[in-house]
# Entry
Amino acid sequence: MSSDEDEPTQPIFLEEPAPAVGDRALPTPDPENPVDRADVIGEGARSFAAWSGRLLIVVIALGVVGWGLMQLSSAIIPVLLALLVASVLYPVAAGLRRLGVPYGLGAEISLLTGIVVLGGLVSLIAPSVMAQWPTLADQTVRGIRQIQNWAAGPPLNIRDEQLNEYLQQFTSWLQGHSSDLLSFALSVGGNVGSVIVTLVLTIVIVFFMLKDGHKFVGWVRTIVGRRGGFHVTELFTRLWVTLSGYIRTQAIVSLVDAVFIGLGLWLLDVPLAFPIAIL
# Structure
């Protein structure tokens, strides 16, 4: 008999090498040392528990950061608004610097330019609103009368006496809740005050961003160190370029929308077409 016949026949799955997955080969089954399923399940459970713990830590950290940001919202909101405004005014300040204007003066001119443009838009809207206000008031009165006539007919059939009764009930409700309405009015007044403070802080922060914004990356680089300075510079540069591009794109889209929406409202003879288009 030949030597091939003397050798014991081996299973086919042991004759070929195990396929590779990435840089590791799949484990070859060993009939004499079978894998304990409990070990496999335990290893999977330990891995799942480890990743679950990491995920839980990340969620808790995000919650703590979110809570902290909510507590500091009065300070964060002006900074975010200032970033948006500064990204719009920065090309003006950069152009003035290229002309040799000092940083401080260029920031002042850019900021005043933005305020003048905003004030000009308001001055354009206000006369149009005041001129069309009587027409709008007359249309409102006619609309209320049409609603009354519709309510008096079927299927509601509400008479004038019933409407007067409803108005009296509403007046009584207002008198009974006058203290609550006063508290609401005071809270609104407080919110108006906070809005004014936010606007003032935003203007101040915008000025310093336009004046000393070029020093910010260098200051952060000195804190981070040489090793992370390159990455910090690249990160903030890309963030600023992305934000500026997004704001400019939105401005162009808003301009196109305003032109066509205003044209459509004007053709339809809608009141306050020009102010609505600007807004």
Confidence is low (pLDDT under 50) at residues 10-16, 20-24. The chain has one domain: 76-278. The longest strand covers residues 20-21.
